[in-house]
Design brief:
Helices cover about 80% and strands about 0% of the residues. It has helices spanning about 10-30, 30-35, 35-55, 65-90, 100-125, 130-155, 160-180, 180-205. Helix 5 (about 100-125) packs antiparallel against helix 6 (about 130-155) and helix 6 (about 130-155) packs antiparallel against helix 7 (about 160-180). Keywords: Membrane, Transmembrane, Transmembrane helix.
Length: about 210
């Protein structure tokens, strides 16, 4: 028997257990830097653009049109979504059976939710004042995100993901109650910043 195969010290055993636990968590829950941080960056940039457009008192803080702000937001969300899908595919490639099926159905739920919300917003937003139309787009999509993150946390019994969804729902609800400018500001700072922090902190914990 090779000398390295002799009984490990308690410290070496604990380190090996921790390494295996970390690898298992990454396989089941994905890389937090791929699943959280890109969304945070997208919302920080996109909703900051919307905040500069609306202002807190209805007076724009910068010459940014609603269309330009929404373009920044949805371009960022599209890129973040592509990165998240890559993370989910990478995660799904490392698991099989029921867990893999859950991941596939969860991915389809995201696609169906985004398409449905887009159709609803396109149909209803022209009938609303500009500020309320912006709230429909921003608040509606953030509500969808909150519910899907809570659902994902429930599916995989992963509390950090569930609490991220709860945080998103709380910030979104408060912002919608306060109006378009406040919603954009709170979402950019608290939700965008929160997702960036969550991705970094959860990755470090791994």
């Amino acid at each position: 028997m090779v000398e390295d195969d002799h009984a490990r010290t308690p410290e070496e055993t604990l380190r090996l257990i921790e390494q295996q636990r970390t690898a298992t968590v990454k396989r089941l829950h994905g890389d937090p830097l791929l699943l959280y941080t890109p969304w945070g960056v997208a919302w920080a940039l996109g909703f900051t653009a919307l905040f500069l457009h609306y202002g807190l008192d209805g007076v724009p803080y910068a010459p940014i049109s609603s269309a330009q702000a929404l373009t920044v937001l949805f371009a960022g969300m599209s890129l973040a979504g592509a990165i998240a899908v890559f993370g989910m595919v990478k995660m799904g490639a490392q698991v099989r059976g029921e867990t893999s099926a859950k991941g596939m159905m969860y991915g389809y739920a995201w696609s169906a939710g985004i398409v449905s919300m887009t159709v609803i917003a396109i149909r209803i937003s022209p009938q609303l004042p500009p500020g309320e139309s912006g709230l429909l787009w921003g608040g509606g999509f953030m509500m969808l995100v909150a519910l899907l993150y809570m659902a994902g946390g429930a599916i995989w019994t992963y509390w950090p993901m569930f609490f991220v969804g709860v945080w998103t729902a709380v910030v979104n609800g408060v912002g919608v109650m306060l109006g378009a400018g406040w919603h954009a500001l709170l979402t950019a700072v608290l939700t965008g910043g929160g997702y960036i922090a969550a991705g970094i902190v959860l990755r470090r914990r791994m």
